[in-house]
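Hi there,

I know you've been waiting on this one. I reran it after we fixed the sequence typo, so this is the corrected version. Both the input and the resulting structure follow.
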Amino acid sequence: MNYKKFIGELKRRKVFRSAITYLLAAWVIAQVSDVVLPTFNVPPYFMKVLLFGLIIGFPVILVFSWVYEISPKGIRKTKNLPSEETDTKTSGPATLHAKKKLAVLPFQNISPGGDTDYFSDGLTEEIIVRLSGIKELDIASRRTSMQYRDSDLDIHSLGMDLNARYILHGTVRKNKDDIKISTELIDVEKDAELWAEIYSGKMTDVFAIQEKVAKKIVASLQLKLSPKEKKALNKRATLNSKAHDANLRAREFLLKYTRSYLLLAVDLFQEAIEQDPEYAAPYAGMSEACGLLYETHDRNPKWLEKAEESALKALIYDPASSEAYSALGLVYYNKKLLNEALIATQKAISFDTDNFFAYWIRGRLYRIMDRDHEAIADYNKVLELYSDFHSAYGDLQMSYEKLQDKENLQKTIERAASFYPSYLKRNPDDARAHQFYAFTLQRLGRVAEARDEMYRGIEQNPDDPIIVYNAACFYALIGDYKASIENLRRAIDNGFGNYEYIRHDPDLYCLKNEPDFIALIQDK
């Protein structure tokens, strides 16, 4: 029981006032009766009956004052406060904020085959984006919601876990050009269904369906929208369903970060742009993909030029694109324009405080600026927003090492060690995750297990330059210099050309006096 809330309600219904008034009146009656009754030779038992009646009347008056109020218009039933109003008076703004919170759970994909998760996830994100600009509504972030895709918790438990009163969930069935979307809005506190709808149509109807669902939520929660919020609710990034679909598929591959997946993302973003040349989102995605290709796989300047050009085009069509600014931050990071990169990432965060990629780029900027305390805060924010973005674990470890914070370094290593097994169970084909888990196991002294995980990562992508480079770092750390140099040579042959990074990578410091290592980077 919330005792503060209960006491506040007792005060509002004037129960305390009634109780005190009654006790004072009863005391006066008892005192007067004790003096007056003997004068009129009233039998002694009458006094006992009177006292008994006064005692019985006390709980009766408490119940009466809880249920009824005395007003100038007479006696009437006390009105119950709406839950938000009661919470505001008794628990403060934080409780009111929680009562207005909505979580949009990932729509369950029930389509034939298993290759359309990107579409159901995209639908979830689009609805969240539409609703996120409404001031009266606190909505769980996209990445937070996505973590509950495969959750076994019931709706009520999910609401408690997310601190959300309202839950939107549903299913998506996509078969070629036909779509069927079912939705249900639940009031967790009342354990009641507010509404449920089924929408059927073609792919071209998906934008109209998204709008209908968003407006239905607004109406059900009785939210008051400003003219600006109404306009944002109706805004469509593109009217071309094929461009929209290609952009969603590209985003799915973008976060895998291997060379083959990034090149596939580039092709799909290009397809989206060709379908709708004024669609900002695929330009921003193209910029991020090309920036990552340049940084980790191929130092050909064409990728960096394409990344910058695409980010600027995205900003032409959508000046408030958070994704375009964070991608531009990556471009400037690789151009060593640190101040410009910092401005771009901060701009990205100002437009979308849930943009985990912007925090990640800014954290890396802080690290090379020797502002590791700020970098740590950003890396932790990345994991808070998107716990599956495991690159942040490695970044955190490097910052704690630099600060010589052994306690937090060990905590981060142990945190990563508990994360990777469950993640790899869900994503067994993530070669980078196998490798990062290997580094974590190596730090814990579990070298044999670490070798096995590293082998799995290499086996899945044996020609990917970043995968092979990671292997070179791993073997250097465990003292196998021959294997390290062999993998480093393969990484360079496959396109890894960031020689400055190789020279300053602490994982490879142990090789600096090795003749074969010196020969590899000489005159580069």
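Quick highlight: The radius of gyration is 32 Å.

Best,
R. S.
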